[in-house]
Design goal:
single chain, about 80 residues, mainly alpha, elongated
Length: about 80
């Protein structure tokens, strides 16, 4: 049950963080936001697969939360520096 929660919740966090980063890198506008959201959805399936492929649920949580946090930090840096502008 813990692994399923890691796949659903952790995978969603990872996918949304990845989508936010891709949107930040693509620049302002609705097309960039839509592209980031679609690419974020493409990250969701590998995150779920990875959650079930790890040796333990604890490792799945740690990997997904760590990767999500890293992507969130990169998104904040991209927004602060105006990487897309």
């Amino acid at each position: 049950m813990n692994r399923i929660a890691a796949a659903i919740v952790g995978g969603y966090l990872f996918a949304s963080s990845g989508g936010a980063l891709l949107s930040a890198l693509n620049g302002p506008g609705s097309d960039a936001m839509l592209g980031g959201a679609l690419l974020g959805l493409a990250l969701y399936a590998p995150a779920i697969i990875w959650a079930f492929a790890t040796r333990s649920a604890k490792r799945a949580w740690a990997g997904l939360l760590g990767a999500s946090f890293s992507l969130a930090v990169l998104t904040a840096v991209a927004d602060a520096t105006g990487a897309a502008a």
